[in-house]
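User: For my dataset I need records formatted as: sequence, then structure tokens, nothing else. Please produce one.
Assistant:
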Amino acid sequence: MSYKPSITNVTKASSNDKEGLYEFIIKLADGTECRAFYNRFPEWKMTNISRLLKTPCPVCRKDFICKCMDSFTADFEGQMTGDEWINKAIAE
């Protein structure tokens, strides 16, 4: 199965503006929710991503902690910066 995450909404969960650290909740088209951590300095860079345990993993179908979303970090970062989800979430 080929999985392609598609972001539908991003909200800012918390931030430390002084240190440039941000936490976002990412909602995907398939109903999966992830928590992503970003560092703003020197440029936006994802430091960690994990799936919230509300639905089974769309990749391995496990209903507990897995690291499947780590392999899609490039897809998430491309959408977050390319579609300007970060700027939209910070502006709210």
